[in-house]
């Protein structure tokens, strides 16, 4: 029997419930998953069926969206973040992680959450979704990868101000990101010898020190050290030459130095199909590459493509375990 993917509800006032329904309608038994949340938050008329355990999802998926119910303390108002949902959103995530850890679900796919609502309603102390999952898994360091059929990118630093990047980006951090990425591509994507291209921090990768010295002083020496340890690395490259078609053909993932250096190219190339993958966890986790989209929630116009791709990738990665 195919072990299904667990899909968390995310913030009920966002687009999560409606794109979950659209994803089920598109995938059905081709990618069995079950949604964990309050059935009352689903769009009116949703053909769902309550299940008692994840193992029932496969048989249900052809005709109804399988729902593992978790009653919430408050109703959902599309377009509105409600702090009263916070404790239940957190509980759903914890439940989903436990199901993946016990093997009842093959992988975890998470719908977007609203951090401020979690802080206001439950005193949420983690920087974000990914860090919370790492804490639940007992892992110190994880890596965010954005993946599509056209490109995989990994930002070494993520949600920090640009002025803080040079101090945050240390040899230890970059080495950890490279090692986790290489291990993830091998173990989760089935790439025996992952090829990683590394971008420089500065314009023109520093241009021999004229525009910054990090590339000379420690980035290139670090790459040489890891190359001697049999990592398939190249760079540091000027970021503006790293993402055209012929360059992308030469690597399996690009390691970037900061958020926009990684996310601008993938969102330009494949905006709707990008998937957020967390590497370094002891289980598979994917997520659509967008937020709660309160401005369009409840209007029935949200695009489910990223969630569909996230569920499919979670299924495929789960099979690698």
From TrEMBL:
Q: What are the annotated GO cellular component locations?
A: cytoplasm
- Work out whether the entry's keyword set contains Metal-binding: yes
The reply on keyword NAD is yes
Could you give a single Gene Ontology term from the biological process aspect? pyridoxine biosynthetic process
Give the InterPro entries listed for this entry: PdxA, PdxA_fam
Residues that hold substrate according to the record: 129-130, 267, 276, 285
Cofactor(s) listed:
Zn(2+); Mg(2+); Co(2+)
Where does this protein reside within or beyond the cell? Cytoplasm
Residues noted as binding a divalent metal cation in the record, renumbered to the chain: 159, 204, 259
Q: In which pathway does it act?
A: Cofactor biosynthesis; pyridoxine 5'-phosphate biosynthesis; pyridoxine 5'-phosphate from D-erythrose 4-phosphate: step 4/5
Q: Give the co-factor note.
A: Binds 1 divalent metal cation per subunit. Can use ions such as Zn(2+), Mg(2+) or Co(2+).
Summarizing the function annotation, the protein's role is: Catalyzes the NAD(P)-dependent oxidation of 4-(phosphooxy)-L-threonine (HTP) into 2-amino-3-oxo-4-(phosphooxy)butyric acid which spontaneously decarboxylates to form 3-amino-2-oxopropyl phosphate (AHAP).
Q: Describe the subunit structure.
A: Homodimer.
Question: What protein name applies here?
Answer: 4-hydroxythreonine-4-phosphate dehydrogenase
Species this chain originates from? Pontibaca salina
Starting at the broadest rank, the lineage of the source organism is: Bacteria, Pseudomonadati, Pseudomonadota, Alphaproteobacteria, Rhodobacterales
**Gene transcribed to yield this protein:** pdxA
